[in-house]
Amino acid sequence: SQTIHQWPATLVQPVGSPLSLECTVEGTSNPNLYWYRQAAGRGLQLLFYSVGIGQISSEVPQNLSASRPQDRQFILSSKKLLLSDSGFYLCAWSWDRETYGYTFGSGTRLTVV
Amino acid sequence: DAKTTQPNSMESNEEEPVHLPCNHSTISGTDYIHWYRQLPSQGPEYVIHGLTSNVNNRMASLAIAEDRKSSTLILHRATLRDAAVYYCILRDWGGSNYKLTFGKGTLLTVNP
Fold it and tell me: How far is A18 from chain B (nearest CA, A)?
């Protein structure tokens, strides 16, 4: 069966520090991968999605970047965190077939102080 | 992306059925109707999806109007664990749109 791993679960980082969040999927190949962010009390915002290795689409301009160095690995990064980067970050995967939905990871709660 | 409209909140009693409505009047012929729910401090969880026919699974049922401009997620017997935000989303299968766009959803409160 397919599983999605996301870490760390919580993170407190000072303003201006770098960020690296990792997401890996097991038990599948060539998944579509997604990074979402949920600010406190708000809805989910799609940040990036990837349909293959090295292929990244950005949904909103921001202080973050994403990379997909391997088929089942998706990384969210920042060189210098801002206070506004605080939020709940969620990774998800999907097959691009009509019979499948999205499966989300357990999320990383990032607090920038 | 085609849009969906949901009530901001709904309330139900435990062990009673719950009908969560969703309007999607601009749905296209290739849009699948997806439902997800999000419990507090957790990632969204897939509930059900369909295209034209009504769908049933172990979690819920999805009733789709004949003209596909609306749908209803049915929880047959609500439990306290069903209290969550429920999202109705359209996913375009026919094009190159790989992404799901979440709206604000419906906050379901289940009373004991």
Answer: 24
Mean pLDDT rounded to a whole number for chain B: 90
User: Residues of chain B whose C-beta is under 8 A from some C-beta in A?
Assistant: 32, 34, 36, 38, 41-46, 49, 51, 93, 98-105
The maximal CA–CA distance of chain B, rounded, in angstroms, is 44
Q: pLDDT grade, residue A11 (50/70/90)?
A: very high
Kindly tell me the sign of the dihedral angle through the C-alpha atoms of B28, B75, A88, A77. negative
What pLDDT sits at residue B81? 94
A58 touches chain B (CB under 8 A): no
Q: Which residues of chain A are within 8 Å of residue B34 when distances are taken between CB atoms?
A: 101
B19 CA: distance to closest CA in chain A (Å): 21
Q: Categorise residue B68: left if φ over 0, alpha if ψ from -120 to 50, beta otherwise.
A: left
* Nearest chain B alpha carbon to A34: B99
CA dist B7 and A74 (Å) reads 34
DSSP code per residue over A49-100: EEEETTEEEESS-SS-EEEEEETTEEEEEESS--GGG-EEEEEEEE-SSTT-
pLDDT digits (tens, 9 = 90+) for B39-93: 988 999 999 999 999 999 999 999 999 999 999 999 999 999 999 999 999 886 6
- Please indicate if any CB of chain B lies within 8 Å of the CB of A51: yes
How many residues are there in chain B? 112
Give how far B100 is from chain A: nearest CA, Å.
8
